[in-house]
User: Fold this.
Amino acid sequence: MKELYLNAYAKINLTLDVLRKREDGYHDLETILHTLSLHDGITLREASRGVTVICNDASVPTDTRNLVYRAASLLQKTFGVERGVEIEITKHIPIASGLGGGSSDAAVTLLGLIQMWKLRVDRRFLIDLALRIGSDVPFFLVGGAAIVRGRGEQVDPLPPLPPTWVVLAKPPLEISTAWAYSHLDLTAIKRRPDTPAMQEALRAKDLLRVARLLCNVFEELVIPEYPLVGEIKERMVRLGAYGAAMTGTGPVVYGLAPDEETARRIATELASSLEVQVDVTKTFAEQR
Ligand code: C5P
Assistant:
């Protein structure tokens, strides 16, 4: 196999709860994630040695800061692989947005290189490697809809939503994940997600109920700091979204729309009235 092409899908958090701070400095989470059809492209090309990363977006670092680079070199070191790889990333998922693009790129790189280098990797060990790259990486080994717990390593699949139109709006803000976790006051959170009810709503394929149950505890930290995030959320609902929420630690806000026409109208109106970059996509669950 000389070359392998893979799609790396974005995700949204339908719920996101932070339960407690752990002794290792990370936090125990409980979050329901869903992949979207919006994706980056990852092309893996055999090379004689080393790891080279190239990307169509010049703002993406291609050195050890890139999670794809870390995924490839971690596999090489762990399994003593002498062959190399060139990895081309075609970016479509906005970076540093809460949509998990870097983590998804890293997860498919792990899966692709295991195939290309014909490695035998035990499932639990693979999850462990993924977690060393980032807390969201284990989820992307599976994708679809899932409830994720622990630091991000416990991934239990849920029935995915039927394809649902999603509007994405990205305000011109950069929110550091480490900042968000360290400033979240766990004792002061007023509204936490009803995770069992969201699982039930997914099982019942009840989109309206899913939309009503969207909840992310980081909104209570981010919205007072960046009111634009709250304004986008409110405006999405006023324009006809069934529900809207921030994804991850932000700053992207997504809205679930009843149909394509409404989704596109919401996107156009948001882009003409607020300082946001918009995108229209759908929920999607790949068969892996
Ligand atoms: O694992 P990842 O590199 O994505 O995490 C980025 C930062 O987010 C961590 O350094 C930590 O501050 C915070 N984090 C956390 N608990 C998690 C996931 C992330 O505290 N479960």
Summary: Residues 246 and 253 are 4 Å apart (CA to CA). The mean pLDDT is 97. The radius of gyration is 19 Å. The longest helix spans residues 101-116.
